[in-house]
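Researcher: Structure prediction, please.
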Amino acid sequence: KIELSDKRNTLLRGSSNAKPVLGKLVCSCSQVGAGNIEETIKGGVSNFTDLCKNTGAGLGCGSCKTEVKEILAKCKV
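Model: Predicted structure follows.
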């Protein structure tokens, strides 16, 4: 007996990510921004798989993986 319209954003976007989106939204499944990804890289994560696990980006539909890889390559330079 839950009104689904009240839960729409949680159902569509998830609720696991407590961090605010920093910068341009890259991953809509996990609500991860470019700034969140860059911050994680600056924190010492340089492996793509670890970056995805730490940020949550790329773990849903996967359509953002190319952009995550581009951000990783840009920050490594």
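Model: Strands lie at 25-27, 32-33.
Researcher: Thanks, that helps.
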